Amino acid sequence: MANRLRADIMTRTLRPGTYIRLDETAAALGVSITPVREALRTLRGEGMVQLEPHRGHVVVPLTRADVEDIFWLQGTIAKELAATAAERITDAEIDELEELNDALAAAIEQGNAREIASAEFAFHRAFNLSTGRIKLAWFLLHVARYLPGRIYTDDAHWGAAALTRHRKLIAALRRRDADAVIRLTGGEFADGAKRLIARLEETGLWS
């Protein structure tokens, strides 16, 4: 539930200043009030909504700097993990990444957004876990929750670009080319930021 509301806020389906009513939201999503209340408590802790006395939860404005900060933090952590992966990853783990990228290609071919998101997550999870730095990988996962995957999974151009980047990353890992691995990893987050910011600009969020 928190993921759904978070994505709606990040994509401006729920606009800044919008009040999220417990009963209305629960009815619209076909759930009880309890999970909505718990989700709002989570989002309040993340600074996505705030509770106004006697009025309810309201969506907090999202600035361009907020989006850039999220991607900066995610990219910084990811590049640190990438440097370690280039040193520690095994040939078997690289083979697994190749198989996972093939699964992503198949999902993109089928146009199945849910499978695309799952395959993309599996690829990056395997890459991050190959580092052995589980706590740092967990922090990256925590930051990634802010990013609405459906913006990317519904974009055919993103899918083709992601596959190309993954193939280049796999090749760099096989060469043990740490500089290329870090650069390609950073480029993925730079591309993600560019696409999300462009999407939000199209909605007039910062006009």
Automatic annotation (TrEMBL):
GO terms for molecular function: DNA binding; DNA-binding transcription factor activity. It holds the Pfam family FCD. The keyword Nucleotide-binding does not apply. Signal peptide: none annotated. PROSITE patterns: HTH_GNTR. Gene3D superfamilies: GntR ligand-binding domain-like, Winged helix-like DNA-binding domain superfamily/Winged helix DNA-binding domain. Coiled coil: none annotated. Residues 1-62 form the HTH gntR-type domain. It comes from the Bacteria. Keywords: DNA-binding, Transcription, Transcription regulation. This is HTH gntR-type domain-containing protein. It comes from Mycolicibacterium elephantis DSM 44368.
